[in-house]
Please model this.
Amino acid sequence: MGLIVQKFGGSSVADLDLMQIVAAKVAETVAAGHQVVVVVSAMHGETDRLIKLAKAINNSPSPREMDALLATGEQLSTALLAICLINRGISACSYTGAQVPIYTDDAHNKARILSIDTKNIRRDLAAGKVAVVAGFQGINEHGDVTTLGRGGSDTTAVALAAALQADECQIYTDVKGVYTTDPRIEPKARLLDKITINEMLEMASLGAKVLQSRSVELAGRHNVPVRVLSTLEEGKGTLVVLGDSHGANLLVSGIAFNKDEAKIILSGLSLQENHLMRLLPLLSNANIEVDMLVQNHIQGGDSQEITFTTHKNDFEKALNLVQNHFGHDNRVNITGSDQVAKLSLIGVGLRSHANISGRIMLALAQENIDVQLITTSEIKVSILIAENLLENGVRTLHAAFQLDGNPDQEYMRAAAQ
Model:
């Protein structure tokens, strides 16, 4: 007998028919002899409905009151699912975050979990009950309800699995697991049996929607085995493995992308000054995050160029700041675009293979896709291209690295080159 934490997202509990399917899956796990803790999100669309209600009154409602409001979505789901389970003859008990209790800091709308008191849940598990816990929420030291931000139910599930020392944390979604890329763009995308925690963290942070990045980080820190599965389709899903043991078999595990990018270029900067020391604090103080960043010395001249990317929503703000602080120098030319997208190849196998960037550039050049920017890290290569070329870029690189083929054959081909 093991202890399993199962998390079901909003699309899995969108209506009562789907809740019955979820209840059946939980019942199967109980019948197999496991203790089960279930974490659920609000029903699909419920959080947006609650936000709309609040903003109909005040476009900037109190963060404290918003947390009190939004937490009711998960409370509805937990109670209904517990009723479904009880109706099947399975003893169950629903919990809000405060009833667990899950303790967080005071940052309303984006709180972080500090600790979890598992006494109440362990008591129910020992009595043969299924604990149905509201995701996305907790309670601060003042007794106020807090929420963890979008995707916070994943974090709740992993945190509970860590606190309970669960054998596995199963994240049920509307897809069969983690794919080499988004199957809606590349139909040949392959379902991965396994992916390392570092690869999953990169993919989550780069735009893959399967797991929330904070939950992946938490799983890695506390050695929580995580499996991504489909609510509606049978299968073993994708196991997120600890360490880098999976990396020996794959050169590239997946391709992630992000359309919410914008780039700004400062050219004609003098070589005598450290312009980054001015630029980075300027953006940071305005709460503008820098993603990709490249600084180049222009050959044959006495100037340098800085190119950086930020979120598309911050483009106008960032461009105005840069123009106000650097535009007074007539030698400096400032340009920008929010019609760009970032495409990233991720894989622990990249550590041991040279010239990956060259292979990327060659494959894209054959499709007349211009690479505007490229950055590399230990297990990731990111490029910036025109947004309207993104889908072609994904398909081109997916084929170039044989991600729809047999992984062992792929590795052997890559190693031989």
Summary: The domain at 3-174 is CATH 3.40.1160.10 (Carbamate kinase). The two ends are 47 Å apart (CA to CA). Residues 63-87 form the longest helix (25 residues).
